[in-house]
Each structure stands twice: as structure tokens, then as C-alpha cells.
Amino acid sequence: MRNAKFVIILISLLFLVSSCGLVHLGEGKVNLVIDHSLPGFAADSVKITVNKISVHLAGHSDVDLGIDPVDIEFTSQGGVSLGSFSLDAGSYDSIKIEFGGGEVVIGGQSFQVELVSPSVRVPVSFKVENGGEVTLIIKIEGSSFIAAGGSFQFNPVVSVAVQH
Asked: What is the rounded distance in angstroms from the CA atom of residue 19 to the CA atom of residue 69?
């Protein structure tokens, strides 16, 4: 009976310590891919800068993945890998993408892109296992770009798919 109480107390303490984030459960990798396409968009080129990407560890806070700002050039169909990043093992519930400026070129004339929203948070549930790997495919829709009286606005329309 006495041993049973000890085991119950020990299990309770381990649960309490692990839920406070004091126990490191290992780490895994997350691969980031941005899928972007502008089918039928009549422009010579369209670029938008991604300044920062972070993921939210469920019940905790955002974790900055530490990407360097990168210019994404939209094409009729395309995708670009942003690399592989180490993350603590655990459950994540969203991804936040912060954008910088952008540019649209039509007929050789350059137009700056106004950001309607400089960031977007997309709910997405994924789990990083110790030693595991997960790929997040971030799709930025062409409908994100809006022509407005001689200028262009970027209102991010983003979805995220998870591949294990």
C-alpha cells in the first residue's frame, strides 16, 4: 500500500514537471515549403518578402524558426523550400508568417505592394516527435494580390498542409 502511494506521488510529480516545460522531450525537424502560384495573373513578376515564420507550441508561446528574410517570386506554378529547422518535440497549433514589402512588375513598370496585413496566423495542428520530421507546405494564394487604382495590395490568403 505504501509503495502504491509513492508511485502515485512520483507519477503526479513527473506529470506536473513535464507540463511546466521543465522536462525536455527531445527534438525533431520541421521542413518549410512555400507553394505559390499566380495562374492567369498578367504580370512580368510578382515578389513578396517573408521576414519571419514562427510556430506556436500548444499551451506555451511562439517559437521563432529563425529564417532569414527571403523574397518569394510568384510564378505560374512554383514552390520553394525554406529549409529544415529543429523544434522541440511537442504539439503545435498554429503558424505565423510575417511579411515585408513586395513588388509587382507589369510591362516593365514597377509597383510597390502595400501590405493590408503585415502578418497572418494560420491554425494548423501538427506534432513533432523526438527524432521525427514533419513538412509544412504553406500555400499563398494568388488572390492575395488586389489591384487598386494603379497600385497593388497584398492581403494574405494562406493555408497550410502537413506531411509526415
From this structure: 34
**Are the beta carbons of 133 and 85 closer than 8 angstroms?**
no
3 or 102: which carries more pLDDT confidence? Answer: 102
Domain with residue 75: its CATH number is 2.60.40
Any residues with CB less than 8 A from the CB of 59 and at least 6 apart, and which? Answer: none
For residue 32, give Cα distances in angstroms to 25, 45, 135, 161. 22, 23, 6, 10
User: What DSSP line would sit under 43-63, residue for residue?
Assistant: -SEEEEEEEEEEEEETTS-EE
pLDDT tens digit sequence for 13-50: 445 444 454 456 799 999 999 887 666 667 778 888 99
Query: Which domain covers residue 123, as residue numbers?
Result: 25-163
- Using only C-alpha atoms, the chain has a radius of gyration, in whole angstroms, of 21
The structural domain count of the chain equals 1
**Which one-letter amino acid corresponds to residue 85?**
F
3-class DSSP state of 140: strand
Q: Where are the alpha helices (H) located in the chain, listed in sequence order?
A: 2-19
Q: Is residue 18 part of a domain?
A: no
Angstrom CA distances, 121 to 1, 21, 51, 98, stand at 51, 24, 14, 9
Place of cell 491554425: 123
